[in-house]
Input
Amino acid sequence: MKKEIIFLTLILFVLSLDGQTVNVDAIRQNKSQIIVLQPSSVVRPLDELVVVCTQGGYVTITDGKGVEYLKTQVSGRLNFLAGGAPGLQTARLFDSKGNQKGSSTFKVEAFTSISDGGKTSELFNLLYKGMLVYSPSGYEEVTWNGRTYRYFVNWVLDNNNTMRGMKYFSPYSRDLVDLFREKQKPDGMIWSFVQPDKGDYHYFETAYTYLGYFNRDPGAWFVRQPNENHVEYNFVNMIYQHWKASGDNEWMKSNLDCAAKALDFCVTDTLHWSKRFSLLKRPYCIDSWDFQVDDEYTPAAPISSTMVVVPGKTKYGIFFGDNTGYFEACNELAEMFDFSGLNEKAKKYRVRGNEILEKLIALTWNGKYFTHFIDEDPNVIRKLGVDEKSQISQGNMYSLNRGLTHDMNVSIIKTYLDLKTKLPAGSPGEWYAIYPPFEKGFSHHNEKWQYMNGGMAGHAMGEMARGAYENGYEKYASGIMDTMLMIIKKYGNRLWFAYTGSIPPPPPVPTYKKVDISSKANMDIWDKGGKGVFTWMDAGESSGNDMRGLPVGSQRFHNIPFNVIDPGNNQRGAVAAVSTKKGFPAQIEIPIKDTAAAVYLLHSSSDNIPSNVAGAISFVYDDGTVESRYIFKGKEVTNWWFSDLENDYAGVAWYGSNLRSTKVGVCWAAIDNPFPKKKIDKLIFDAPLEGGIYAVLGITLSNRKHYVKPKGESFGGPDNWAAANGMAALVEGLAGVKNEGLAFDKVKLSPRWTSADVDSVNVTIQFAASKGYVAYQYHYYPAEKVMKIKVTGSGNELHNHILLPPNCQSVSSVFVDGQPVSCTTSKVENSLYADFKITLPKVHIVKIKFN
Output
């Protein structure tokens, strides 16, 4: 009876938890004399929990690995913060003699999240969704040799970059390595990409087989892009990334021979290694892309000359990004060899990487950044319409995070800060694929200011921010993240791989000139017709099925002036119609005798044209030359019943009703003149050969090409890559959670929230492959000059490297769990950091006071 009284007395201490009534019956029924109360069914790191005991003693909390992270005296009730390794955790009650009196379990789960209730939360969520734009799970798959392999993107380059963000959410970061390890060629070559065997492979088989760069197996086919020399180092990056995230040492060791063979391939294969420079080489491409220049030095090939190489004829040179990437991969492989006790092999690759970087710097470093490309043949003089030595290519942004010296990184960052002050009109930012763009040489692949030729690289913004955070330019980096959020919201809530690099103001309003077609008009817009004049679309007299509602005279459609002939003033002729139908002309010539940059048509098509070719237009110039093109249904024109068309170069000009239909209409279309400086003698319109009627109601000349404001978003590589690099910058740069061991067993914590004007934020970062994580709650009190951080994790060591506010002069004290600890400060450029170490997995409360 006495024990029961004590029990009931003690439970009076716990009547509610976070405003909710405690289930007293659950405590009474707990025979182990201890219970853990939690605010919800899922416990997150740093959630506050309550232990209720039926007697005094001491309590220990052990994490999912069985490691004790809390031991304290208790009398009835204990509030504590969840921490340590995730999984099933245990609270145990011991009496004063060390006898266990009971235990209670609860489950802790960590999921990557960054939340400040404002812009950072919004950016985090949008980047996360951006990594899943192609698949709800974020991955795709292929089945080969009886095994299903999952990957984020089926290209090695793209997958490696997408891993940088997806490794915090998905465990599937090893499969593509496993697949390409099994499929590695005997000489060490790694395939560029894999494709499930359900698409058209014939182009690749035809174009690449002669080099041994295509292979088709049951279930999948494999391709090596001939121009690429980045595949092997990206492959090693993937091995390293997964090892560091998963902590799977045996898996890593199983890939070492494969990784070494891959890197050796680059320095031994004659199509990838420059004997002259002792550096990795490739044909002249834009940065790290797979299409080469099309100029006088590009040899002819049976198919796709810009996508293949011709041994002995293709001109090669040095792209710096291949070599900085290779340098990084050599160091990563050396680290893996050292970890495995293979120190001589480690030394071999570390020395090789350093030698390559030294040669690269001597050849391509101009004191501020790496020169884009150096031809092997000194006699090659390219005429690409740009000063190539002035070009800044995106590989410089990627190189920031590959182990260059701090001084080199700062020089690259300053280069972009300088570029920021002289951007072209309508630029979305300074993070270009290449700047200035090429004027010539790459028209077969993308136009100026798009994609790789002067497009703004959305995928490189994260790389630039991550490098700037690490090198003392935190405010600039946070500005990049703000811009990233702004353009995501502006263009469809998605971070695009590339953006249009320049959108100048629209040109002046064109001068228009309407063409008189009355002498060629052979069709009415009504159902009347007459001698030599057809009823509208030959629908028959008195049918009521016509275009009588169309306004006549001088009209404006889509802000383009047209003259619509009044059939009553031109013997019922209002339309120039061509057809292969009996009685119609198959061709009509309209005299022009003038110059024009664009021709605007007011036109229509009958409903019974069976193909998608509605007609054709030919420009006949006064020098006798002719340029012709088809007019397509659904592109330039559409049916006149229920007309529906809208694009940048054509649309429905007018619609209304007639006696038979509630909607009939005509279209406008802009046709740019292929040779705007030539005088046009006449325009010839040809009928569709498969039947139907093509009808021209008006022609207007313009002294300017049709203007279409460029879209802000461009095209190119996968957008999940762009989002992943942004996520990596958010995690490692701004939130400052950086893995320095395996699976977060050693962590460098560098929260840089003062650079983003964020005073309060909750952060949890987990590697999905290992469940290793770090979690912290950050609060900054500017008026008090104090920072408070609650932190825990699944690992062992935490090196704090805390960015202090810009006006901070020194640190006056650092307390951890109420006890003073030794702290030093370090400067990175003009930024001051507080440095001190603490151990994990214990939950710590840190207080930093500064002057």
The longest helix spans residues 343-364.
